[in-house]
Amino acid sequence: MHAGGWKMPETPKPTLIDNLAHLIEASPYDLTRVDKTRIEDLWKDQSKRSFVVEPRVQVAGYLEVTPAILIADCLLGTLGLVYRLEDSFKKRAATILDQATYLRHLLLMEAGVDTRPLRRAYTIECVLVLPSRDAQQDLKHVFRHTARQTSFWHSIGVNVLVSAGDEVPKADHLRRAFAWLLAATRTWLNNPPAALPARRLKKVALTNYRLPGQREWTLASEAKVHLLHGQNGSGKSSIAEALELSVTGTAVRLQARNVSDYAEVIRNRHSTEPAVIRLEFDTKEPWSSAVKSTGVEQPMKAGMPVSSFRLDQDAMDDLARRGPAQRAEVFLSSFFPNERGVTVALNQAREALDANVRMLPPELQEAIDGLAHEAKADIITTRVAWVHESRPPTVTEIDVCRPMSRESLDALRPFSQEITDFMTATQFADITEFERLFKNFNEALERLRKGAGSRLEAIGIARQCLAENAIRTWRPATSGGSAHEFQASLERWTEKTALADLAERHVQLSQSLLDAGKEGWIADPELQTAGLFLEPEATLASSLGVLRKLLDQADTDRKAAYEQLMRSSSDSDAIAFTVSIAGPELSARQSRALTVAGEALGPSSGTDGLGQAMDRAFSQQTAVEFGGLTIGGSDTWGAELDARLTAVQSALTNLADESYVGPMQRRENLRAALKASQDVRLAAQRVKDIFLNELQNERFNAALNELMSLFTPARWAYDDVEVTRGVTAGKDSLELKISGSTGSTADLLWNTAELNVFTLAMYLLAAIRTENPLGILLFDDPLQNMDELTVTTVARGLAKVVKVFPAAWQLVFLFHGEDDLERFRQEIPAAVYLLPWLAPAAAASDHVIVGSETLKSTFRSTLQDLDNVVVRRDEHADVPQ
């Protein structure tokens, strides 16, 4: 309220129509707004794209049209009628569809009044703005009735935009409703600009190519779209195959059948002359080649995938039905061969990373298991970057190079001071100190690993010895038994011990002589007077088994005699004798094994090994200190010794295992994995820098969904699709997801017609990104399983796409159905060619020339002039009945 008492008028809130007008005036639609009093300005310039809000126009003096917004896209030849429906919208919608169809009829009538020159009528697109999703569902009944009872849908396009109240419509909803303006498609085609063909195909001449004689197909130079029709057997497939052969040097269909002689298959079977392909271009240099057994000489671009310039049912299946990995393979190899090397490098880097990951420590493998390659590379880089740094690693970082558990390494420390030095270090002063300790640590383990076999054998014998109860539980004796009985037991034990020693010596001598003989040693004949020196090598070898059994039996008897000796020392008369004489006795073999095994306990207090220490303890009936353990000091000394040897045995077993990887090699594996990770990250970044990254942003998906909407009659009934880049089994894949859904796969949900519309749209957007030696995109019967309404809609949409398509490109469609041909030629300015039906028995001298059909071709048509056809109606004039 101002001081003067009057109130500032409120600014009116923008209505939905105001918001729509603002949106289509802005990027990416960029329409020019025209005052409704200047209706004629809408089509004054046929390169102009403009609109007017709330016009009141009359068409051909008969029909009054009052949309909320009238759009005239003269470049695409489209009139758009935008209506907002609220109350009684069903009846209102039916009236709008009726009026729009009548408008199209009037425009067609006006365009056909004078056929010289041929004029092309504007197409009509209706946009019905509804207040809710429920209203959209109710409106389907109107659409269904109209489709069943009339042919309106063949004449006009109908679009739906749901917008509650006066809210601003979402971008994807707006794109679907106004797909016929091709805003997203223009953006995609112009940024980055399409590749431009170096030349333009003018003529295809085939001689004795499957059919006899010569056929020439001359393309109309003024036409951008070419419609080639031929019944089955007229040679339509031969033209497609000849173009494939001339460009790539091969034919996919023949390769699939492992054809070894192309000439034999392609040359007309009644002809003795070779089949010849000749192509002429708008440049002076033609291309020509006879078909030989290996194909053609010097193809224009050998190895180029045929799907780069020809879309047929096989290519459509590869792009839509055969899985994400196959889709990516076709997509990259066909449309982006120059960048394919980057993707191949990425796949190779991923494979190298997988190979290196398998060499990493298990704990690091577990940390990255199941992750994508790029995620694995990130974690590896973070965790092992220190291997390339100039600083010494921390104890925690270097722990990943530890070849076995800390417990096992601690068990091995008595064998080497170098192991102890490294394992007890808490930090490294500098890189020099670290490298010295690390190198010594690695070398100590390697030395220990070389002798691990003999140590393990000795520990095994030592543990068998400790398993004997008489040794395991031995204590210095303080009581005995009957002296007489004890004396007999002692003599028996002494005898058995001597026999066991003799048996062991016999085995050792026989084995030594046998080994020496194998090495070529022969004793002096003068010395071979008696004993084992006289035995031949075969006899020595055959006797070893028996001798070892004798040794085992003697050892068993010795042990039994000893146990009897212990039982006989039960009375007081034998106490003195037992104390002075009795005790376990070790064989020489056991003593040697215990001495080797004892090295794992650390240095003893004297010069004796473990075997000598135990012998001394048993013979002197006194406890002996060794390696921090008192032999005979307690009832559990034997169990304690066995436990310590078990830990060492386990560590040495791991050390001797074939899968062992030493510290230095582990660090090298980390370095290799780090390099592979860096290669993956670099290759992935390069892939992101090329086109495939476009599949992850809005431009490609927006253009793709726009074209799919344009090619679909009931475009409001389908959700957007998201084409995303993924990785399957280490290779790039292209996933098709339904927008806003979780776990949905579009290629499993769509019907065949939808899949074909998808591949057609994808092909139009992608194929112009690659070099094309023909300058054409060849569509070989792309309308599989499409009904008449869908074919008409696709043709009407393609007529608009052609207007914004790069000028240097030609589109060629091959049809076998006359209905499809007729629908396309009525909607698209195109040159029409009719292949004559040729019987197999045609004369070899036939020379068939195929040119554009003047009466059927429409490429010379011009867009009709709407001056005096659509005029502004005075608001106070009477409405005609």
Short descriptors:
single chain, 31 helices, alpha/beta, Rossmann fold, 3 domains, five-stranded mixed sheet, 46% helix
CATH superfamily of the largest domain: P-loop containing nucleotide triphosphate hydrolases
Q: Which strand-content bin applies to the residues?
A: 5-15%
- Which oligomeric state applies? single chain
Biggest sheet layout: 6 strands, mixed
Contiguous helical run count: 31
Radius of gyration: 47 Å
Number of E strands:
25
Strand order of the largest sheet: 1-2-5-6-8-9
- What CATH calls the topology of the largest domain is Rossmann fold
* Termini Cα gap: 51 Å
Low-confidence stretches: 571-581
Q: Based on helices, strands and strand pairing, what is the structural class?
A: alpha/beta
Query: What is the average per-residue confidence, as pLDDT, rounded to a whole number?
Result: 84
CATH class of the largest domain: Alpha Beta
Give the proportion of residues in helices: 40-55%
CATH architecture of the largest domain: 3-Layer(aba) Sandwich
Give the overall shape: elongated
Number of domains: 3
Topology:
Layout: H1 16-25, E1 32-33, E2 49-53, E3 57-59, E4 63-65, E5 69-73, E6 78-84, H2 89-111, E7 119-120, E8 123-130, H3 133-149, E9 156-162, H4 171-177, H5 183-190, E10 201-207, E11 214-218, E12 225-229, H6 236-248, H7 252-256, H8 262-266, E13 276-281, E14 287-290, E15 310-311, H9 313-320, H10 324-335, H11 337-357, H12 362-368, H13 373-384, H14 395-398, H15 406-412, H16 417-423, H17 431-450, H18 452-467, H19 469-472, H20 483-518, H21 537-568, H22 575-580, H23 588-597, H24 610-620, E16 624-626, E17 629-631, H25 637-656, H26 663-689, H27 698-710, E18 721-728, E19 731-738, H28 746-749, H29 752-766, E20 776-780, H30 788-804, E21 810-815, H31 818-827, E22 831-834, E23 847-850, E24 862-863, E25 870-872
Parallel strand pairs: 1-2, 6-8, 7-24, 8-9, 11-23, 12-21, 12-22, 15-20, 20-21
Antiparallel strand pairs: 2-5, 3-4, 3-25, 5-6, 10-11, 10-13, 13-14, 16-17, 18-19
Helix pairs in contact: 2-3, 4-27, 5-27, 9-10, 10-11, 11-26, 13-26, 15-25, 16-17, 18-23, 18-25, 20-21, 23-24, 27-29, 30-31
